Amino acid sequence: MCPKTSKTTPLLLIGGIGFVIVLVGITGITLINNINLSNIIRLNEKVASDSVSASDNQIKELNYVNNHPKNIYLKLNDTLHADDDNSNDDDDDVGNGQQRDEAAQEPGGGVMEPPKVSAVIGSDPKSYEGRNFKQNQTTVPASSAVNSSASAPSAATPAVVFPSEATPLSVAAASGPVLPLGWGKDMSNASSDGLIDYEKRARVVQMMEHAWRNYKLYAWGKNELRPLSQRPHSGSIFGSYDLGATIVDGLDTLYIMGLENEYREGRDWIERKFTLDNISAELSVFETNIRFVGGMLTLYAFTGDPLYKEKAQHVADKLLPAFQTPTGIPYALVNTKSGVAKNYGWASGGSSILSEFGTLHLEFAYLSDITGNPLYRERVQTIRQVLKEIEKPKGLYPNFLNPKTGKWGQLHMSLGALGDSYYEYLLKAWLQSGQTDEEAREMYDEAMVAIMDKMVRTSPNGLTYVSDLKFDRLEHKMDHLACFSGGLFALGAATRQNEHRDKYMEVGKGITNTCHESYIRAPTQLGPEAFRFSDAVEARALRSQEKYYILRPETFESYFVLWRLTHDQKYRDWGWEAVLALEKHCRTPHGYCGLRNVYQQEPQKDDVQQSFFLAETLKYLYLLFSDDSVLPLDEWVFNTEAHPLPIKGANQYYRQAPVTLPVSNAS
Ligand code: DMJ
């Protein structure tokens, strides 16, 4: 026994030592890996890029591949054609992002066509008056205009049902067709009108890339970028919390342009970071609605990705306490934690502001339809009723309304600041409803007829402008903000043949021309915040505090709408002038800034890249050089932040919820 023992002891000893060495080695490697990983993670957090570490990226990539709208369709296709070809495997995509990009961009070939909906229920193209509304000759009665709300749910019924056993991860709830990422670029079809200005459009895409890249570099996850100081800007309208306003606002523009990696980064940030829970931000109900709720809703319409619907509802729920007033007219500001709401101290006697409480309808109505929760629509319908029933001085809407008494404040009227988008949402609520919300169209027509009569004027040299009205006195001044109304008047004309139609179109073209004049009369070729008309000046700012330009979109918005409706080349030419001016004066090495005085040859810059520059200004310019099949105006209606929302009954991406859910507790 002894000899045997003495032989095996060294063997056991050697084996034991070897085992310990291997164990230590494995532990060491694991530790080193972990240390590296956490360093990488920390480093990445530090450089303000939430695109995470290398290993995390792989997880994100997988999630992305599964969640990505285009790949949802790939999955869908795979399921449907499981027997066709095994090579159409998502794993290939995981391994080769390049290939995926190329496939997505290959005209006519690699592009995944969205599933065809056999018929958009109730959608009769002839009930609209031509894609560009050009052949509008007859009145379109509400009854003949697309489908009623009763049949609307069918319009969103997916053409192809996603079999649950093949449903990957969170894609489960994504239903209905998906608008492929970058279809605005890739899927413009020659059959529409062939009117794509590729070169100019590519320039706008480069501008978007520049704006996004620098935001990502210096302000990722914050609200906006300060290009000169290369740091974040968190303006008070976002409650000074890091809400990624530029991401949420700019994401649909990236999607339309087909900037896939950028879109992916943004979606990822929203999924991982965006929340209003556990923060005590004092938010503007209006700004939060048009940018955050509006932005999420558009992304939901495009992709069917449930993430966006959840986030839109999450944000809207945080705004609901503001509606708890005796009249149902919401306050301007709400605290996301306490729910305490209030109005601005400066607004006439504690009033709410017309352009704010009057610019919720599109988003809230659509949110009700996609969630099946009627509460949101009820809230904006209450506002509508108050405004419908209240007496309107000379048929006009003053800018201020007291939410407690339901009485008007100061009798100031404007199609610019404090009034503007209320009028816009009357027309667009009617359009969004598939022209069934007749009440909205009537209120629009009544308001615009009164405005044409009491506020629209022509200068001695023939420039049409819309003046502010204070009590009975016209202030012959027009805000840059009011420049959107050129497009609005024209859209009103193009969508209904009535006795006002010609006048609407004339005024729409006239206002757009005047806004262009306000641009080209400045050495920078960019328009001031407000401009005046007198015997001495026309379309020119006089006061120092109205000479600035903050990258606003309204004039380009009107160029875009007028281009779509008329195909008059001058609107594209004017848009191109603006692109060159933006590049010359507003571009910096680290993003785009506004200008302090458009009348100086070398104006000082303001160091803010507004989120609406990405959401609106660049989107409208991009669309101006695209053909009409990209977001056709008879299928999409733009919210006031340029987030396109689908038109009920005319758009297969409407995605109406089939069931009604219980009322939200957050009211
Ligand atoms: C945007 O936020 C919206 O267009 C809003 O309706 C008005 N102001 C800015 C852009 O100028």
TrEMBL record:
Membrane topology: Single-pass type II membrane protein
Subcellular location: Endomembrane system
Entry's EC annotation: 3.2.1.-
Entry annotation: catalytic residues: E287 (proton donor), D420, E529 (proton donor), E554
A GO BP entry: carbohydrate metabolic process
Biased composition (Low complexity): 138-150
Bias (Acidic residues) ranges: 85-94
Coiled-coil portions: none
Pfam families per the UniProt record, alphabetical: Glyco_hydro_47
Record pathway: Protein modification; protein glycosylation
Enzyme class: hydrolase
Keyword Lipid biosynthesis among record annotations: no
Cofactors required: Ca(2+)
Protein name (Swiss-Prot/TrEMBL): alpha-1,2-Mannosidase
Originating species: Drosophila madeirensis (Fruit fly)
Higher taxonomy: Eukaryota, Metazoa, Ecdysozoa, Arthropoda, Hexapoda
